[in-house]
């Protein structure tokens, strides 16, 4: 996650009565819960996240050899799972960074002759902050939660759609570089897509989902009141999957991750989904953000619970997710 301009250890959430959810809202759609027959494998989630957050990648800072190894790993993942490159290669060169840096972009064309002209973007940033400048025992900021966890979720979603071929809309799977440098990867890519008259329906950006919250919902969404995405996701999953986190609104997290450049250009529902609630993870931008402190069963459950929602988003005949303000 892009640097937050406040001191995390001193952020406290209010009592449970401050937390509201969308479960009481009445949907105007006739869509029902999506039923899928697919199992996310916990060992595959673990193996993917373990390598992406390993010391070998040295914290994946944009422009370093560490993130280059991560890029190769992600390219190989797309190839293995028959996800095509959207551009001539999987590498989308950043136009706003001083040395060579790349978003990794995969593409699955939709199966419906008309709906395939519309795109869903599933994204996460694969860069992190690299090595500590001051010498200490552990100098590597591994970024397991921030945001190797989100990349792992998007990769599992890509694997699901590649195997099931269930998407009627086309899907762009994006792993952004340069997020920690100021959302550079998303800012660069969105300008290229705008020139191509990219027909965006919605973007789901996954940010810091490595540990669960102690809430009565699975995750929260940034910019909760900007669209009906939270309501639709809960409808599609048939569960209280998404809730409202007051601290998200207070710190305006909608503007702090890779969803915002897409919203800024396309003015479509583009939001980030997270389980980092400021009291469940102590190691934000810290060398202890490592694989060993990730909750693999939680991440596996997160993917499994979201698959019905992303399936409906990729297949609904109408654009049911809409802006509200």
Compute the gyration radius: what is it? Answer: 18 Å
The secondary-structure class comes to: alpha/beta
Helix fraction, binned, reads 25-40%
CATH superfamily: Zn peptidases
Q: Could you describe the largest sheet, including whether it forms a barrel?
A: 10 strands, mixed
Oligomer: single chain
Number of domains: 1
Rounded average pLDDT = 91
Order of helices and strands: EHHEEEEHEHEEHEHHEH
pLDDT below 50 for ≥5 consecutive residues: which ranges? 5-29
Please indicate the percent range of residues in DSSP E strands (runs of 2 or more): 5-15%
Could you characterize what this model shows?
With 325 residues, the chain is α/β, with parallel strands linked by helices. It has one domain (27-315): Zn peptidases (Aminopeptidase), CATH 3.40.630.10. Helices cover 31% and strands 14% of the residues. The chain contains 8 helices and 10 strands. Strands 1, 2, 3, 4, 5, 6, 7, 8, 9 and 10 form a 10-stranded mixed beta sheet that branches. Strand 8 (219-221), helix 5 (229-237) and strand 9 form a beta-alpha-beta unit.
Short account of what is shown:
The chain has 325 residues and is α/β, with parallel strands linked by helices. It has helices at 42-52, 65-80, 144-164, 184-195, 229-237, 246-250, 259-266, 296-315; strands at residues 20-21, 84-85, 91-93, 102-108, 119-125, 170-176, 200-206, 219-221, 242-244, 270-274.
């Amino acid at each position: 996650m892009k640097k937050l301009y406040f001191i995390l250890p001193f952020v406290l959430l209010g009592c449970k009565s401050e937390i509201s959810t969308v479960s009481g809202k009445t949907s105007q759609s006739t869509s029902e819960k999506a039923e899928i027959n697919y199992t996310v494998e916990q060992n595959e989630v673990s193996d993917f996240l373990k390598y992406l957050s390993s010391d070998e990648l040295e914290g994946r800072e944009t422009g370093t050899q560490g993130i280059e190894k991560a890029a190769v790993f992600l390219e190989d993942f797309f190839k293995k799972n028959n996800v095509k490159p959207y551009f001539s290669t999987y590498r989308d060169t950043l136009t706003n960074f001083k040395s060579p840096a790349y978003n990794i972009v995969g593409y699955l064309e939709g199966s419906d002759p008309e709906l395939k002209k519309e795109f869903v973007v599933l994204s996460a940033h694969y860069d992190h902050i690299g090595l500590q400048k001051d010498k200490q025992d552990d100098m590597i900021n591994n970024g397991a939660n921030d945001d190797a966890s989100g990349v792992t979720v998007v990769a599992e979603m890509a694997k699901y759609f590649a195997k099931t071929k269930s998407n009627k809309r086309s899907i762009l799977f994006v792993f952004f570089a340069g997020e920690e440098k100021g959302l550079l990867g998303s800012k660069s890519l969105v300008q290229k897509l705008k020139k191509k008259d990219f027909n965006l329906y919605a973007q789901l950006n996954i940010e810091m989902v490595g540990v669960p919250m102690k809430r009565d919902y699975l995750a929260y969404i940034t910019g909760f009141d900007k669209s009906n995405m939270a309501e639709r996701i809960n409808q599609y999953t048939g569960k209280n999957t998404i809730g409202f986190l007051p601290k998200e609104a207070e710190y305006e997290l909608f503007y702090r991750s890779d969803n915002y450049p897409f919203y800024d250009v396309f003015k479509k529902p583009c939001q980030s989904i997270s389980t980092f609630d400021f009291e469940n993870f102590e190691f934000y931008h810290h060398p202890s953000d490592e694989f060993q402190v990730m909750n693999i069963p939680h991440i596996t459950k997160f993917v499994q619970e979201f698959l019905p929602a992303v399936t409906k988003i990729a297949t609904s005949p109408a654009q049911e997710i809409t802006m509200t303000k």
